[in-house]
Design goal:
Blueprint (H helix, E strand, L loop, with lengths): L1 H24 L2 H4 L13 H24 L5 H22 L3 H22 L7
Helix pairs in contact: 1-3, 1-5, 3-4, 4-5
């Protein structure tokens, strides 16, 4: 189970890294042209960049605390934050009628819930 939790955290970290880099460093006008990025046309550049930075922080929060053994409780806390982010993403894409993206966000949400359950529960990091 520990391995499955690490794999789930790694997958979410990869997703967060991809989204974080694109939202932080790619202009929102360019993001609005790609599949799934249309919502950025209705958002401020600051909001898009803030989401990007939060996703980059999620990368660190999902991996580094456990890998370094420093405050590993941050891992499931980060996963809880990811759940909230995915709920917002699902609402945003749902309002735009982007059902396939809602389903993809649901998969990410499920991975995060698995991490929350596993790291707060049976495979919690203990000092």
């Amino acid at each position: 189970m520990n391995l499955a939790l690490w794999i789930a955290a790694g997958l979410l970290a990869a997703v967060a890294l991809t989204g974080g880099v694109s939202k932080t460093f790619v202009p929102k006008e360019r993001l609005a042209l790609v599949h799934g990025g249309g919502w950025t046309a209705d958002a401020s550049a600051g909001f898009v960049k803030t989401l990007g930075v939060l996703e980059l922080l999620a990368v660190a929060g999902l991996i580094l605390p456990a890998a370094l053994g420093i405050a590993p409780v941050v891992v499931p806390v980060t996963a809880v934050c990811w759940v909230l982010l995915m709920v917002g993403a699902m609402i945003t894409h749902g309002r735009r009628g982007e059902v396939s993206l809602v389903m993809l966000n649901l998969v990410y949400l499920a991975l995060a819930v698995f991490i929350v359950w596993g790291r707060f529960g049976p495979e919690a990091f203990t000092d």
